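Why this split exists: single-chain examples teach little about how molecules sit against one another. For that reason, every record in the complexes split bundles all components of an assembly together and asks for one structure covering all of them. Below is a record exactly as it appears in the raw files.
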Amino acid sequence: MSTAPTPTAGVRPRVRTGSSYRLTDRIGLGLAWFLGLLFCAIAAAIVIYFLIEGIRYLRPSLLVTNPAAAASESQTGGFLDPMLGTFIIAVMSMAIALPVGVALAVWLSEFGRPTALARVAESTIEMMAGEPAVVLALFGLALFELPALGFLSQTTNGVVLGQSFFAAAALLALVGLPMVVASVREGLQAIPSHVREASYALGKSKVATIRRVLLPTARPSVITGTMLGVGRVIGDTAIVLLLLGGTLTFQSANSVPVLGLLRGTGDTLTGYIYYNAPTGDGNQPDKAYAAAFVLMLMVLALNVGVDLVVSRSRKAVRWS
Amino acid sequence: MDEEDFLEQSHGISQDQRAELWLGALVFVVVGVLLAMLAFVTYQAWPSFAHNGLAWFGPGGSIDQQITRIFTSGDLKQTPVYTFHAWPLIWSTILTTVGAISIAFVSSLFIAVFIVEFAPPWLRRVLEPVVRLLASVPSVIYGLAGVLVLVPFINNHLITQSEKASVTPIISLSGAGLLPAVVVLTVMISPIMIAVFVDGLRAVPRGWLEGSLALGVNRWRTFWKVGVRTVRPVLVAGTVLATARALGEAIMLLMVSGGVGFAPNPLDGPTFFFEPFRTLAATIIAFDDERSSPPMKHTLYAIAAVLLFSAAMLSFIGWAAKRPMRRYGVIA
């Protein structure tokens, strides 16, 4: 910018009273500065507010005790189970979304034939990204209430409940999927075609090229996509309330150690916050603040992780 | 490792074809899931639409009474009632979405221009991660802030007793309503728009801007007339993305909207901004435990179908808007 020959152009904008800045320009520039600084103020207010309230109400004991129904705040326990639920849900849904998302991205970027199917797939994934979570949740409920899928949740008196970790993770995978696909696809497309051609010239098949050359090169994008997907998944509340039951603690379907837990209902931090907000049934804002603080820290960690991966990958590979 | 490579090499062609087939099949499955969702939700919604016709979308009667009647008619052994006039819910959804999007669009555009072009470098380095952080904060946290900070503030300082008295027989004003909902929704979707706009504005070819500057046009005018104009498709795409989020937002809006099936009336004057409401998506969350009653279930699926098709239309608009961007070499 500093190379521009006009006297008004510099590293910093200076509003001169000269003829070059008309009144509308000055109003526009002023508005940009005003709104930009207002945004800074609002962002700082949100972050600082949750930081202060979180530190005020977060006790180590909250992290290791389970929610309990009680009259007074001191006896209602912490949010161990919702926190574990958030981890379980993130891992399970990504276990579905990551392989499927990478496969879709590879197909879209490297195969993509017939073109009609590619176009349909592309718009389908885009549509999934825009679908409201409540609609996905209702669809998921209907799906997992089918008797054929009863083995994934609980059955009482022949009626399938349809709420379980399996059901919630399956539908949350659909929420995370578009993020993974978009990121991996972008990473694959950023690899110039001469890299593929070099691999083919060495006699490698297409599959070998994808597995040995393209995917390792696009690993930063895979990691970024996964983190963005996890961010969406742990932030969702509607699917958790409808498909996980929002029962605060883990309610195992039976006594089988892992499978019983995953077939049972549970909760995540978002569900816990919703329950403890003044509009929820729990109405304990202190606990909600503490849980919100923990959730914010998770989101922050994911964001920092994405930034680290992106900045490192920028340094690593240079094609030219 | 070498042996494996050799095997891959010797069966090269067949393996590639097999991989393509498997991946293609997976693509079919994913597309099939979405089509199944469209078909299933429409099928479940059909009784409600069939009984009401176009009146489903129209006004008439109290929405909450209708919901109660639909719910109870499923429990007793009587003919199911489907009468449902969703206008208050639709009107609330339109009000919040349009209100928040129009405020967020204008401010996001200016903020994005500020971040890309006018902010000091140190501020830019701070702002960009902050935008991405705010874009990924869960909506329930925004809802919590709204219901614990904004709603009490409005109730204590902005609403007068006479305003409360003026609507007492119909609704009660508690602070939760249109104003906090639009404010929180705006704060929630702005970072999404800003992030998309910033990416687009940064992709504007530098030479175009410098060409304009070389002609003696000042920086603001250059950026406004060349930069912003170039990324118009990005503006549409970002707005569509944010609209989809606003339209489907259920939890946060249920927390700050008051949760009453009421259509805020602009003719009420300033009271309009404090009137409670409930959007389409929030209604699904609010009544999801009443799905045991068959007519209620079909009604909820009808609401979901409306949301589903609105979101599908939106993503189509976004897809159509993104196409001309390739022409400029701008990809967002």
